[in-house]
Specification:
This protein has about 475 residues and is an alpha/beta fold. The protein folds into two domains: about 325 residues, TIM Barrel (Alpha-Beta Barrel); about 100 residues, Immunoglobulin-like (Sandwich). A seven-stranded parallel sheet has the order 5-4-3-2-1-7-6. Strands 8-9-14-11 form a four-stranded antiparallel sheet. A three-stranded antiparallel sheet has the order 10-13-12, with no helix packed on it. Helix 8 runs parallel beside helix 10 and helix 11 packs across helix 12. The N and C termini lie far apart (about 70 Å).
């Protein structure tokens, strides 16, 4: 059965064998320090059979934009403010009348994502506050029925689609606003109403906007996957969007895992989600911005280990992206416009250990050495031939023979020597040629792997004391 030829009947037949093995523990909230959620092995036959094909574009893309945008943006104290500060719901609802994103906000987001070198976007269509950014028929607590008076999800979709950007929807299963959002855990009638409501909202999102590429569930509290009827939920999603990929935060395995605020490789497809400062939603007083160098290092680390990097922006209530986010993303994008081949469509497994000032990615037999802090002019060079001439980039424990090396930005060849312990790249300028990271591309005789720990048993050792 191919994706192109799937029909409702063939889909239902293929997914009939799906089984939900056991309930999962409550999912961790999407906030600072949250752990990856536990999942159960709920598998749909169609999902298993087509996963590699559906994931192919996403794994080549490597880099996406996360967008947290909702009523919390009006307060400007991050996205958990309703619960973390205990705001009464009738008061919180007043924010809807003051949430008025300006015309063209979505086009600006898309233009920024393209300048940043990001290949896909994921928007919070409904966060934990329960406010829907689309024109839903199931509640009037929505952007179409209150302040904005229009369908913000549609504006986002149309802007992204016009620019050729892949489209993702975030959807929070947890809902602080719905009257059954908590009592569903102990009241079966409430559970039935709330599950029907949730499935109905997801059906709207999967039906009303054309092809959607990613569904990013979040926080399945307070129900288990069985109580959510999560296998039926995913069957519906794939029936409506057969080419979509889904994450693992509705309690099922999904197509990819989602480590949060950390880079944690998985044995399957995975994506690390991270913020540019400390919060996801807009925080007007938060100036703890990550540097472009830090973001590029995290992006390269994800690519090195075979994962994706979903980097968040928290727009202001009118949709404006904070200036610091824009400046940093534009710096990242300029770098990717020159060095993108060292990130996009790379394979994991480039390194089993890290350098002191380097990181590594690979594509086929090419090793990309990312140099974050240029190693020039160490005073040790006057005593150690190893550091001569004055600028040497050294990599210990490279499992491949280097055939040639060049500066990625200019294509200029550089000289090197290699023995069983170390690759030493010389003929380098005194100052880095790129900012904030310089990349050296090495063509090797096989897929390269860096593991400097591997040289320990092969290091010639001479005596207990000084060797000479």
């Amino acid at each position: 059965m191919t994706l192109d030829r799937i029909s409702r009947r063939s889909f239902m037949k293929a997914s009939a064998a799906a089984a939900l093995v056991s309930p999962a523990a409550s999912l961790a909230a999407q906030e600072a320090g949250a752990s990856p959620p536990s999942t159960v092995h709920g598998r749909l036959a169609y999902q298993e059979q087509t996963r590699a094909r559906r994931l192919a574009w996403w794994q080549a893309a490597r880099f996406g934009m996360f967008i947290h945008f909702g009523l919390y943006s009006v307060i400007g104290q991050q996205e958990w403010v309703m619960e973390s500060e205990g705001i009464p719901i009738p008061q919180y609802e007043l924010l809807a009348q003051h949430f008025k994103p300006r015309a063209g906000f979505a086009q600006e987001w898309v233009r920024l994502a393209r300048r940043a070198g990001q290949k896909y976007m994921v928007l919070t269509t409904k966060h934990h506050e329960g406010y829907c950014l689309w024109d839903t028929k199931l509640t009037n607590f929505s952007a179409a029925r209150t302040g904005p008076g229009r369908d913000l999800v549609r504006e986002y979709v149309e802007a992204a689609r016009a620019a050729g950007m892949r489209i993702g929807f975030y959807y929070s299963l947890m809902d602080w606003h719905h009257p059954d959002g908590m009592r569903c855990a102990t009241d079966e009638n409430a559970r039935r109403r709330f599950v029907d409501y949730t499935h109905g909202l997801l059906r709207e999102l999967m039906t009303n906007y054309g092809k959607i590429d990613i569904l990013w569930y979040d926080v399945a509290q307070p129900l288990t996957p069985e109580q959510w009827e999560a296998d039926r939920m995913n069957r519906m999603v794939f029936e409506l969007q057969p080419e979509i990929i889904v994450n693992n935060r509705n309690g099922l395995d999904g197509d990819f895992s989602t480590p949060e605020h950390k880079i944690q490789a998985d044995k399957r497809a995975w994506e690390s989600c991270e913020t540019m400062n400390l919060g996801w939603g807009y925080q007007q007083a938060d100036n703890e911005w990550k540097s472009a160098r830090r973001i590029l290092k995290d992006l390269a680390t994800c690519a090195q280990q075979g994962g994706n990097y979903l980097l968040n922006i928290g727009p202001e209530p009118d949709g404006t992206v904070p200036d610091e986010s824009v400046r940093t993303l534009e710096t990242v994008g300029r770098w990717l416009s020159v060095n993108g081949e060292s990130i996009y469509d790379t394979q994991g497994g480039a390194a089993l250990s890290f350098g002191n000032y380097t990181n590594f990615t690979r594509k086929g037999n090419t090793l990309y050495i990312h140099v974050y802090f240029w190693p020039s002019g160490t005073p040790a060079a006057q005593w150690l031939r190893f550091f001569q001439p004055p600028t040497v980039v050294a990599v210990g424990g490279l499992h491949a023979s280097v055939l040639s090396a060049r500066l990625l930005k200019t294509g200029h060849p550089v000289t090197f020597t290699q023995d069983e312990l170390s690759l030493r790249i010389t003929g380098l300028p005194e100052q880095p040629i790129d900012d904030p990271v310089t990349v050296i591309a090495c063509e090797c005789d096989q897929p390269p792997v860096v593991d400097h720990h591997s040289i320990r048993p092969r290091w010639p050792r001479y005596s207990v004391g000084l060797s000479s």
